[in-house]
Task: structure prediction
Amino acid sequence: MFIELFFPTVIGVSDFDKTDQIEKQYYPYLQNLKNKYSRNGTFCYYEVHKDPFFKELTNWITGEVNKFSDKFNFTDTYIPVESWFNEYTKGTHQSVHRHAGSVFSAVYYLKGSENGARFVFKTPLPFDNKNPENNSVKKNNESHLNQFSWTSASYAPKKGRLLMFRSFLEHSTDTVGDEREQRLAISFTFDKK
Ligand SMILES: [Fe+2]
Result:
């Protein structure tokens, strides 16, 4: 027997090498923006990619997203079209959503940790009415499965880490359980130049 993997769900992961420097530089500035523009204290629709202050990070992310698009053999160049940031505190989370109007999405963790509330991708496959393992709301354990059978995949919000994915992919975040956990994520969407 041989197994083939057509139509996979592709996630790109890159780590920035100036993590601490960029955090020190950007965090106070983002705090000011949050105080000025955020309506709920978590989500702040501020177009980071249009502000020259964030040029270094925006350029790096744009480069990584274009390397990611090369993996698909896509021929266009991609540029950021929207951006925003979220600072999560205890009890907050993001429910399942996708980013309409763009080809790629990218999330960068300016602050975060290996054991913080996770970023969760949902399978783009249709709902499996009779999943062979009989998972249910009550019994939601996929740990014994694998990349052929998982229905979600999650990532720790590691500081300096960038996650890249096609924008149609539904995603959410787990709820922050610890008030000491600081997590600030900057999100970008990309479209053809
Ligand atoms: Fe999102």
About this structure: The helical segments are 19-37, 55-71. Residues 97, 99, 171, 187 surround fe (ii) ion (CB under 6 Å). The longest strand covers residues 78-88. The mean pLDDT is 93.
